[in-house]
Amino acid sequence: MKTVKVLLNSIETVKQFVADISRIDCDMDLMSGKYKVDAKSILGIFSMNLSDTLDLNIHADGPLLNNAMTAVMPYRVA
């Protein structure tokens, strides 16, 4: 599992994020504190506080992890 920080601060960003990661065949979760949702669920994401950065947990390794990291690159923050 790999964890990266992402920022999804607009409706269009959330829609594009879900479209991008839905193409990757692995599980991904978004976390904000103790709150966790499926990262591929647009409704789940909209239930979170989108003004803060979120932790994205990618449950993959090898080439699948590389594909996922490429897909989430535009949304990553330091």
Explain how this protein is built.
With 78 residues, the chain is of the alpha+beta class. It has one domain (2-75): 2-Layer Sandwich (Histidine-containing Protein, Chain: A). The chain has helices at 11-21, 42-46, 62-72, and strands at residues 2-6, 27-32, 35-38, 54-59. Strands 1-4-2-3 form a 4-stranded antiparallel beta sheet, with helices on one face. The longest helix has 11 residues, at 11-21. The radius of gyration is 11 Å and the shape is globular. The model has no long low-confidence stretch (mean pLDDT 96).
CATH homologous superfamily heading: HPr-like
Mean pLDDT: 96
Number of helices: 3
Characterize the overall form: globular
- The count of DSSP E runs of length 2 or more, i.e. the number of strands, is 4
Radius of gyration: 11 Å
Total discrete domains: 1
Category from helices, strands and their pairing: alpha+beta
Biggest sheet: strand arrangement: 1-4-2-3
Order of helices and strands: EHEEHEH
Please specify the SSE layout and strand pairing.
Blueprint: E1 2-6, H1 11-21, E2 27-32, E3 35-38, H2 42-46, E4 54-59, H3 62-72
Antiparallel strand pairs: 1-4, 2-3, 2-4
Index terms:
single chain; 78 residues; alpha+beta; Histidine-containing Protein, Chain: A; 4-stranded antiparallel sheet; 3 helices; 4 strands; 27% strand
Short description:
This protein is α+β, with helices and mostly antiparallel strands. It has helices at 11-21, 42-46, 62-72, and strands at residues 2-6, 27-32, 35-38, 54-59. The protein has a four-stranded antiparallel β-sheet, with helices on one face.
